[in-house]
Amino acid sequence: MPEPNHRNGKLQILNSDQAAQILGVNVSSIKRWSDSGDLVCQRTKGGHRRFSLDDLIQFSQKQKRMNSKSNLFDLNKNMNTKLIMSVFKKEFDYIIDYLFREAISGSQQNIQQILIQLYTTKSPLWQIYEDVLVPVLHLIGDKWKDNELTPIGEHIATQKIRDSIIRLQGLVKGLKRKQQSILFLNPANELHDIGLKMAEHIMEERGFQTYYSGQITPANNLKDALKHFGPDIIIVASTFVEHPEKLRQETDAIWEAVKNRDIQLYVAGNGFDEIILPESSSLVRLHSLRELVII
Fold this sequence. Notes:
- The structure is a single chain.
- β4 and β5 form a beta hairpin.
- The strands form three sheets. This protein has a five-stranded parallel β-sheet with strand order 7-6-8-9-10, covered by helices on one side.
- By secondary structure, the chain is of the alpha/beta class.
- It has helices at residues 16-23, 27-36, 53-62, 64-70, 81-89, 92-104, 108-120, 125-145, 151-171, 194-205, 222-229, 244-258, and strands at 6-7, 10-11, 13-14, 42-43, 49-52, 181-185, 209-214, 233-237, 264-268, 283-286.
- The chain contains twelve helices and ten strands.
- Mean pLDDT is 87; it is low at 1-11 and 66-73.
- The chain has three domains: 6-69, Multidrug-efflux Transporter Regulator, Chain: A, Domain 2; 90-171, Methionine synthase domain (Methyltransferase, Methionine Synthase (B12-binding Domains), Chain A, domain 1), CATH 1.10.1240; 181-294, Rossmann fold (3-Layer(aba) Sandwich), CATH 3.40.50.
């Protein structure tokens, strides 16, 4: 058997299932390509197929049709091998650092590729967002607070993350449509809607009908929206609060609009840590994106 490949001091040999996951195909395709000689394959003494990451990259370069069909990585030799394996192994620390650097450099395509590959290799949406993108956004915010990133730089980096979420949303197919619908909104004066957009995507994938109002939704217009759309659930997100009293008034107004209706209200984000919420089983405080999967 040929000498196995090594990169970054680690053995980079994969079995058929792992190769199929990285290329985004089924195992039968991997077997067919290896049997035909199109995909270089090593054999163990027991006859099992083994593949090097370098050979998968070379194969991917020759088979652009695979990437166009599956929207996966355009694997190439210039791609950081450690990054590819980090995505495959769900080693998020390295991915977070990479995405942070790509965001502040204004690179849209590389961020998009990573998100697609994470999703294709079976990372659930809530995990992609909560364990990867939220830490990236925190890093961006910290750099801005420390004056290591200009306001324009912070806006560009944040917008690249937001655009990547929206583009990923266009590629992910939801489950069978549920009967329930959800209205997503930010309070008035709230400009940060990335967390809300993540929440909408998670619930859309779960099959809910979603209505996204987003930034700066005045509570005094909510009753008309409730009458028009008839949502079963409302999710309100507040990330940053400059005036807690205004948020409290806004939250009270939202609560007044929904409390006598058969509507479940969820509030999320650090902003709601600044105020006292009404006590009711119809109002639930969310602390993580993962909690959305049990609604």
